[in-house]
Design a protein that fits this description.
42% of the residues lie in helices and 13% in strands. The protein has 319 residues and is an alpha+beta fold. It is globular, with a radius of gyration of 20 Å.
């Protein structure tokens, strides 16, 4: 199926009728923080300035504020010889990260053009080195705080995660790193049994019993701690501090910025498919039954879930 670039989500608006916005985090090498900030100001407008140490920001660009920094804990340390040595070594393996404000579709398209510019200027992605494990994180705002708008996208992702990793694999380097670990099979099974109409409370309790790690392809802890801190507190997350917010934290996508066949839309399509499945309750229920039959039943499907999932999604026009 041919789709326009950065296709609108099946639920494009929030409950109050405003467009859902998506924050983006881009990890890359090959360019310094200063170079990226200056390129952004030249091409997106706004003012580039150093904020602290080697951290930069671009204020009032066409897509709002951009933060640009080396993604390493040392950047927040007091200036010292140890910090400088650590940052110098870190540049060999640690990405520069660009963090955007939440963007509407127009902003995502403008960001996509800027990413293409960075490629032309020498930006490097995760495929350039065995030491690079760079990602592109998407943070789509939830459509509403209703149970279904949280539960169904999570369920859709859990059911097709293995299929996405098999048919649309992430770079091997990122697969070996701990930051995008697959969901535990037990969690997927419990979610499938709960189904699309499960309560958010039941889903949070199930998720919590299976994992409190932030290092999954879809990290749900920001949403859970935002909506139900009584069930999961921010300090209980493992793998980094949880910042509660009403947005999915989709960590699975790669940043293959040096590949001319890759774009922001390449990774956007992964999330678009998750939400398209979530919007079709009948399809979601079918996938629950198929997954349980393939993984836990005594059918002839055996371990052929990926092939079966491929057939189901093809039949639904979602390939």
């Amino acid at each position: 199926m041919t789709r326009e670039a950065i296709a609108p989500l099946p639920q494009p608006d929030t409950a109050d009728g405003t467009p859902r916005r998506i924050g983006v985090e881009i990890e890359l090498a090959g360019l310094t923080e200063k170079q990226i900030a200056q390129l952004a100001a030249q091409n997106l407008g706004g003012t580039a300035r150093r904020t602290s140490g080697n951290d930069w920001e671009v204020a009032q660009s066409a897509i709002g504020r951009l933060q640009i920094y080396l993604d390493i804990f040392l950047r927040k340390e007091t200036d010292s010889a140890f910090k400088e040595i650590g940052l110098k070594i870190g540049r060999e393996v640690i990405p520069v990260e660009i963090v955007t404000e939440p963007l509407d579709r127009k902003g995502l398209l403008q960001l996509s053009d800027f990413i293409a510019l960075l490629r032309r200027e020498g930006a490097k992605g995760t495929g350039q080195s065995l030491l690079f494990g760079f990602g592109l994180h998407l943070n789509p705002a939830i459509a509403s705080a209703q149970d279904r708008d949280i539960v169904r996208p999570l369920l859709a992702y859990a059911l097709i995660e293995e299929w996405m990793r098999e048919l649309h694999p992430i770079e091997r380097t990122r697969e070996l790193l701990p930051f995008t670990a697959p969901y535990p099979k037990k969690l997927i099974a419990e979610l499938a049994r709960l189904g699309p109409n499960a309560s958010l409370e039941a889903v949070i309790q199930t998720y919590r019993a299976a994992t409190l790690s932030r290092n999954h392809g879809l990290d749900m802890l920001p949403i859970f701690t935002h909506l139900r801190p009584d069930l999961i507190a921010p300090e209980q997350g493992k793998g980094g501090t949880v910042s509660p917010r009403p947005a999915f934290h989709f960590r699975l996508p790669d940043c293959r910025i040096d590949d001319e066949d890759w774009s922001l839309d390449t990774e956007w399509r992964r999330w678009w498919r998750v939400e398209a499945i979530a919007a079709d309750t009948e399809l979601l229920s079918d996938l629950c039954r198929e997954w349980l039959a393939a993984k836990e039943g005594l059918t002839l499907l055996g371990d052929k879930w990926v092939a079966r999932c491929d057939a189901v999604l093809d039949g639904a026009g979602l390939l």
